[in-house]
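Hi V.,

Quick status before I head out on leave. The structure for the redesign project is tokenized and pasted below; the design run finished overnight.
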């Protein structure tokens, strides 16, 4: 196979994995493929069966690895002679090629390629060895940091020397601390660091290196950021073209024969995707890594594209883990479609219903209770493991443990037992059978809801994968619904009820952190049987199918909650334990201890001069030179330095320099929303509209519920006269920020520009509702525009004839941008053409009626209302509105102000037209009396004013008409 066939290799069709009904005729290749899938399914029984069907020594060695892996004996996988032989060859290749100065991932990838090429007849067994070794290292890390059981350092000491190949200095001893420090640096990605308190991060580093080779077949390691943004613009898997990553298009691909051998593996991409998700969750930042997501999508494009045996749940598990990956990386939609696909693949049926029932002991009347009915395609008939079942029904004393009295003596100087542990120690309850009443005699809640309908209380015995899918549906409810009571009810119970009580939430989180341990509890210290009750392979069987948090993740959330509640000292202690130095400095500053913070930072710089520490020193000393040092030390990879540097430049009013720094920051870390927002805001100040549009577009792609970003994006489009885009942006903005009257005003304008008159009237109603907040006058210009568009749609133009036939003036200088100038003079624009609709007229009548009932003294609004009635043929109502317009203009002292006099004279002239059109004697008489009063007062100070003289001539005409009528 030559290099020209690389595309064929990477775009090969999905392999259909089917199990032959006649197991006796399975080929060696089929046996190994089934073993691969059995490892994913933790089915060691099937692997034992496969071992009896082959006499091939190489296949037997591979099956031995698969069996150890499926039984949870991960350290023994690494100790296996085939892995040790591979590792010896790997070390020899690294030394021979002189690769020690390269990143461990690139180093191991190139060395493994050399090992494979050197033994072409053994490529397939080598592929399985690398795969199972990588999976073993990954599961070791997950066992030690997520699920337990814990392992003593002595039990893992013999594994450390072989990891010396990761170090770039052959003279350094491979101790736990040395490998720990090296792994923390190696696992940095996109300028973000991992948690330092994790156990044995070197196992994850090793797993990432091995599985990177197996699943990605690329020499480009994760320290090279992907230049394209794949999170805000993810490629659908149906259109995904699978190719290895390159750096600026330059990277020699692996040997084609090696690539073909790796692609023949059924689960290589699957294990690689799992390692990538674990890597992402190890990072301190909550922002998803674009680089890790790019590689994750690359892997899962293969995983979900394969076909799996129909008698297994592997298809459902593949879709489920792909959905969880989208959730972890915060992809828009967050895996909802994949969760649905998983449910369809597993045959799970779910129905949300309700039933009458009681929750408390003293409840008399039944009320509606939410019920979830879930049924697996095939009922789960598998029971718990023998050891787990025995332990669940057995008390501490039955296991030969100490009685409560003996334990009290042993714990006189230690921590007292909890009430639950006391029950277990006394033999009054089994380990897994403590009821609410036993734990809290004063509890008023029933152990289970007492339903009137017995069928509602029946529980279906679900398959484990179906239970995991139900948990993923809880994530979907949380991701796609507001944080209200119904959402929490649908999820059964949120781990921390932050909406009810912040203090209660913190206490619950603290309890979760205290209970989250990979070690034995107080009552288990002498009981190996309890550890055996949940062996590693059972604990890890579905750990990748649920979002189970590691201890350090819970601690970070707890510290964040302490900080948000002002418990700075507790937050400080937790952040120090997590070595989150940014937050540590923040807590010291909040505690008004900047000197201690600076001393701590300088102390850390003496130990390890990292870019983060230089940034922290810059924060404390206000010296921007430290940010520059951080940027250089990180080799232009630490985006935080540029972000803070940019903010400092902004504070010094150096806008152009600040923009440059933020552009560098988003280029390195394109997933940081606040940097894009800041860049967009600064670009608006300099009127760099293309950059501002790009920045805020990225913000709303990363955070679709950021109403302020949507509003800014809409304002930019509005400024550029791109009204359709502005309308859409303001629609999204108002979904999140409905109380901002500025957005509603801009939305009205956009709706009018795109002829969405119903939306415009709805927005005007919202502005009326918000009048208590903004105290702004009613926008009569917009009301006039609505009247012209709906009632007079055929008018090609509105002529300003000095006021005689003027019913409304739409001053675009007042609309674009909006201001409060009520000057009638100005250019009147062409009215937009729109179809006159009876429904719109009814809505507009309701809007104008509501407006005039709230604002009774605005003459402009009455003027618009009169014009509306004119168009609808309501002459009497139009006259009434014009009379109210004149009365509104006759405020105290109007006859002393020339502008007020002129406005009233023009309004009175329009009123006279309505009276004359009525033509009755009573109307002419009433109009004459009203005009005479206005003219008389106006002539006192403004007898020579043209508007006054014009109104006087109208009065003379009225007198003539009245005389003729008599």
């Amino acid at each position: 196979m030559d290099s020209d066939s690389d595309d064929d290799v990477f775009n090969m069709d999905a392999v259909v994995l089917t199990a032959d009904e006649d197991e006796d005729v399975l080929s060696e290749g089929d046996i190994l493929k089934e073993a691969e899938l059995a490892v994913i399914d933790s089915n060691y029984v099937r692997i034992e069966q496969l071992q009896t069907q082959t006499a091939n020594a190489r296949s037997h060695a591979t099956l031995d690895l698969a069996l150890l892996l499926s039984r949870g004996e991960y350290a023994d996988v690494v100790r296996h002679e085939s892995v040790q032989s591979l590792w010896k060859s790997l070390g020899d290749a690294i030394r021979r090629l002189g690769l020690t100065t390269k990143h461990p991932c690139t180093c191991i990838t190139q060395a493994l390629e050399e090992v494979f090429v050197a033994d072409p007849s053994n490529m397939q067994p080598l592929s399985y060895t690398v795969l199972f070794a990588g999976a073993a290292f990954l599961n070791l890390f997950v066992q030690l940091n997520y699920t337990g059981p814990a392992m003593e350092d002595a039990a893992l000491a013999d594994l450390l020397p072989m990891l010396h190949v990761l170090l770039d200095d052959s003279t350094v001893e491979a101790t736990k601390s040395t490998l720990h420090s090296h792994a923390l640096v190696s696992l940095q990605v996109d300028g973000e660091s991992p948690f330092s308190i994790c156990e044995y991060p070197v196992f994850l580093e090793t797993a990432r290196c091995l599985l990177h080779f197996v699943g990605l077949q690329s020499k480009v390691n994760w320290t090279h950021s992907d230049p394209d943004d794949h999170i805000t613009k993810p490629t659908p898997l149906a259109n995904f073209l699978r190719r290895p990553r390159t750096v600026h298009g330059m990277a020699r691909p692996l040997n084609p024969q090696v690539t073909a051998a790796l692609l023949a593996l059924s689960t290589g991409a699957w294990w690689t995707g799992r390692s990538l998700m674990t890597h992402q969750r190890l990072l301190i930042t909550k922002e998803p890594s674009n680089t890790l997501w790019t590689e994750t999508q690359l892997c899962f494009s293969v995983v979900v594209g394969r076909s799996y045996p129909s008698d297994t749940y592997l298809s459902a598990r593949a879709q489920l883990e792909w959905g969880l990956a989208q959730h972890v990386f915060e992809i828009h939609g967050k895996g909802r479609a994949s969760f649905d696909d998983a449910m369809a693949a597993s045959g799970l049926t779910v129905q949300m219903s309700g039933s009458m029932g009681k929750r408390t002991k003293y409840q008399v009347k039944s009320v509606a209770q939410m019920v979830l009915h879930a049924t697996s395609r095939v009922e789960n008939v598998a029971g718990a493991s023998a050891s787990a079942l025995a332990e669940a029904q057995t008390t501490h004393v039955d296991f030969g443990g100490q009685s409560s009295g003996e334990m009290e003596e042993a714990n006189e100087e230690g921590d007292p037992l909890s009430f639950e542990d006391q029950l277990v120690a006394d033999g009054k309850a089994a380990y897994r059978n403590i009821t609410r009443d036993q734990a809290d005699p004063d509890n008023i809640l029933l152990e289970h809801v007492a339903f009137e309908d017995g069928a509602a209380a029946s529980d279906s015995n679900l398959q484990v994968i179906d239970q995991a899918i139900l948990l993923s549906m809880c994530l979907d409810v949380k991701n796609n619904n507001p944080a209200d009571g119904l959402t929490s009810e649908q999820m059964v119970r949120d781990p921390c009820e932050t909406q009810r009580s912040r203090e209660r939430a913190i206490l619950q989180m603290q309890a979760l952190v205290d209970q989250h341990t990979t070690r034995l509890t107080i009552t288990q210290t002498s009981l190996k049987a309890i550890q055996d009750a949940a062996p590693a392979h059972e604990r890890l069987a579905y750990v990748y199918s649920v979002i189970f948090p590691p201890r350090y993740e819970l601690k970070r959330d707890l510290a964040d909650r302490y900080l948000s509640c002002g418990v700075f000292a507790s937050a400080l202690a937790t952040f120090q334990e997590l070595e989150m130095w940014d937050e540590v400095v923040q807590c010291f500053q909040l505690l008004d201890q900047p000197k201690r913070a600076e001393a701590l930072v300088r102390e850390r710089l003496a130990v390890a001069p990292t870019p983060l520490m230089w940034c922290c020193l810059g924060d404390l000393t206000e010296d921007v030179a430290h940010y520059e040092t951080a940027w250089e030390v990180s080799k232009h990879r630490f985006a935080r330095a540029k972000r803070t540097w940019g903010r400092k430049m902004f504070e010094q009013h150096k806008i152009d320099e600040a923009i440059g720094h933020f552009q560098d920051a988003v280029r390195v870390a394109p997933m940081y929303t606040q940097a894009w927002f800041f860049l967009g805001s600064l670009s608006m100040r300099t009127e760099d509209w293309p950059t501002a549009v790009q920045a805020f577009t990225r913000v709303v792609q990363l955070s679709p519920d950021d109403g302020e970003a949507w509003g800014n994006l809409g304002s930019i489009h509005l400024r550029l006269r791109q009204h359709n885009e502005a309308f859409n942006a303001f629609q999204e903005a108002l979904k999140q920020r409905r109380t901002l009257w500025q957005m509603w005003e801009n939305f009205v304008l956009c709706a009018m520009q795109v002829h969405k008159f119903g939306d415009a009237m709805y927005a005007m109603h919202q502005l009326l509702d918000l009048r208590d907040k903004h105290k702004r006058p009613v926008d009569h210009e917009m009301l006039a525009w609505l009247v012209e568009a709906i009632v007079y749609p055929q008018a090609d133009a509105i002529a300003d004839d000095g006021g005689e036939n003027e019913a409304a003036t739409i001053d675009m200088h007042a609309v674009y941008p909006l201001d409060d100038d009520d000057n009638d003079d100005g250019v009147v624009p062409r009215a937009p053409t729109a179809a006159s609709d009876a429904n719109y007229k009814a809505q507009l009548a309701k809007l104008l009626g509501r407006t005039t009932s709230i604002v009774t003294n605005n003459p402009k609004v009455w003027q618009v209302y009169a014009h509306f009635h004119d168009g609808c043929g309501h002459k009497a109502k139009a006259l009434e509105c014009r009379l109210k317009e004149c009365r509104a203009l006759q405020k105290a002292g109007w006859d002393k102000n020339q502008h007020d006099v002129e406005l009233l004279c023009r309004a009175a002239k329009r009123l006279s037209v309505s009276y004359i059109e009525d033509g009755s004697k009573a109307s002419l008489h009433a109009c004459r009396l009203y005009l005479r009063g206005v003219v008389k007062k106006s002539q006192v100070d403004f007898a020579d004013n043209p508007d006054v003289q014009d109104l006087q001539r109208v009065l003379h005409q009225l007198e003539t008409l009245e005389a003729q009528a008599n």
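Above is the designed sequence. Residues 123-147 form the longest helix (25 residues).

G. will cover questions while I'm gone.

Best,
W.
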